[in-house]
Amino acid sequence: MATALVRAGQADQARVAALAERCSSILEKLRDGAQSRRASERREPTFTIGRAADLVGRTPAAIREAEKDGRLPEPGRTDTNRRVGYTLAQVNDMRGVFGTRPWRDAADPCAIVAVQNFKGGVGKSTLSVHLAQYLAMRGYRVLLIDCDSQASASTLFGYVPDLDLDEEQTLYPFLRQDELTSLDYAIRSTHFDGLDLIPANLRLFQSEYELAARMARGQGALLDRLQHGIASVADRYDVVVIDPPPALGAISLSVLRAANALIVPVPPTVMDFASTAAFLAMLDETMSVLQEHGMATELSFLKFVASKVDENKSMQRELLGLMSQLYGHALVRTPLKDSAEIDNASARLMTVYELDGPTTSKSVRDRCLNYLDGVNSEIEVDIRAMWPSHAARLRREGLA
């Protein structure tokens, strides 16, 4: 009987292994196909002179004048003598020339923003990546840390994680090797100027068990490893965005210890709302336990984002109203509505900010960008309010 059970278990494992291998093969083909489609395209965003001027905080005339007098290089032109779009690196050069970089002062704290919920499918990685890219386009120095072994954020940057990355290129070595003192080894540049990435892959899941086992032996200080790792590179960045796993485990606790701001995406459905209520109860209990052990969390802000919203559904409209009453000013005013643009971009291993044009229609794309920019701009204001060097300016602008 025992032998038969062993054989059945081996057969099941073989089937799972075969399916995993086939799925990895398909993912690799999708990745290669997406890369070949992008071979003749610029994955980094480009901007017209009008859009560049808006981002830089100057007029198109000021940019043209700076190009004429040599402070900025002359722009490239097409065969028909039209200006080629400015890259993000060129826009950041303009910010340097005009003195409009939005960086924090060295004395200001690095904003460490976790986008967290203990339920999957709420748009956590979508929000994390679009927020990081938005902030990079606004001129901030940004590090995105993928702490989720499912690696959705890493995938949106074009990686098939378990084919393109090994465990030594993720957080995994730092979390398990006490002798490592910096996260520098894992940082990768991205195609967005000013935005770096620490990717993840499935092996990161193994660290959950290892950390839990070591903590059970009394090594509670392990929860501070991520905090120390971020501190080792924080002087290079204005904002660190963290995409944690959708579960309460050792890594999620480490993220809570490291973060000084928390964003909770909540789709307006009964199940997601109930899950978020449970998340908040667990969060309250977790923060109390951490405080009892001398590891209190310090959050400059806690914000909720209504994600994956479909206002054509009456129940969602009702829940949005309830969320507005319940969360008050903690709810970001702009809802992040469900959009085919986000789905179509994700299918290309890209984001909406990378697409040169609409995948559906111009009106749908414009609405999607308005929602994304609305959500991210509100979060940007909260981030700037964390910095004494920016707070007075925000008050003058009437944004804080």
Description:
Helices cover 50% and strands 10% of the residues. By secondary structure, the chain is an alpha/beta fold. Strands 5-6-4-7-3-8-9-10 form an 8-stranded mixed beta sheet, with helices on both faces. Strand 5 (188-189) and strand 6 (195-198) form a beta hairpin. The protein is globular, with a radius of gyration of 22 Å. The model is unreliable at 36-42 (pLDDT under 50).
Flag low-confidence runs: 36-42
End-to-end distance, in Å?
70 Å
Main sheet specs: 8 strands, mixed
Number of helices: 16
Q: Numbering strands along the chain, what is their spatial order in the largest sheet? A: 5-6-4-7-3-8-9-10
Q: Taking all residues together, what is the mean pLDDT?
A: 87
Tally of strands = 10
SS content category: alpha/beta
Described by the principal axes of the CA atoms, the overall outline is: globular
Summarize the helix and strand pattern as letters. HEHHEHEHEHHHEEHHEHEHEHEHHH
Helix content: 40-55%
What Rg is obtained from the alpha carbons, in whole angstroms?
Answer: 22 Å
Which percent band covers the strand fraction? Answer: 5-15%
Features:
50% helix, 16 helices, 8-stranded mixed beta sheet, two-stranded antiparallel ribbon, 400 residues, alpha/beta, 10 strands, globular
